[in-house]
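Researcher: Good morning. I'm working through a list of sequences from a screen, and I'd like to move beyond sequence-only analysis. For each chain I'm collecting a predicted structure so we can compare shapes side by side. This is the next one on the list. No need for commentary yet; just the structure.
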Amino acid sequence: MLISLARGLPSAPVSVGTFFKHLPPLRSSLLKFKPIPIRRTILSLSSAFNDASAAVDCSHFQTLNSHQKNQVRLYIGSLLQWNQKMNLTAVKEENEVMERHVEDSLAIIEPVRNSYMLHCGGSFENLSVVDVGSGAGLPGLVLAIACPGWKVTLLESMNKRCNFLEHVVDLIGLQNVQIVRDRAENLGQNLDFRENFDIAVARAVAEMRVLAEYCLPLVRVGGLFVAAKGHDPKEEVANAERAISLMGASLVQTYLVESHSKYGQRTAVICLKDTPTPGRYPRAPGTPSKLPL
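Model: Good morning. Structure tokens for this chain:
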């Protein structure tokens, strides 16, 4: 289902400084929710990063059942076919899509599960998730395949990309996905969407200061914002400390995940929504990227 909401579109908290000081070296659909009381637990930095840096011996794809694997293959085939006529990804080969996109998307499930169970409580099986700036459906569409109990909203402002997402969702037969064509700044001020999601995710969209303003207004109090970042986002996350706080959230974990990128590691930056986001955020479309907080 494609929902177009576009107006005027062409088609336990720790200070960031202390948090990163103690980092070990890196190694080579809509539902209304009642706020869940937050059970704050001070994060053990040493144990968190020991667990985070543990190598994953097997492919995340291999953990899927046969039906899910077939859905992923159909998705990859459609992505490469449509990519010949529009810019969806710089990757041109099936194995590269699997390694660099599908595996990276699946890799964030474990850290999200761990953080959600620790900080948010409740079931992890039936969540409302928004993928902000979904693009070609990464990571949201892959998460919808791997977690069929989730209700996933793919938020994308470009009409051509929404057309692709609509096509592939119909082809695969996903019943747990809706596509919304709009900007994050507009959706964050729409009361049908604002603070209605358990989790907001974003991958390869913008820097953390901007992402915080895009994503956190959509997350319910007690929910999570998850940014998929590169191998060493220390400076970027430190610069975003003020923006994260202004949105009513705090950094709770930075989780290292194995990746097929050239550095062999990527980072899931996870924030907990502590209090409602002030009504003035997000600001008007275009402002967060032009004037980051």
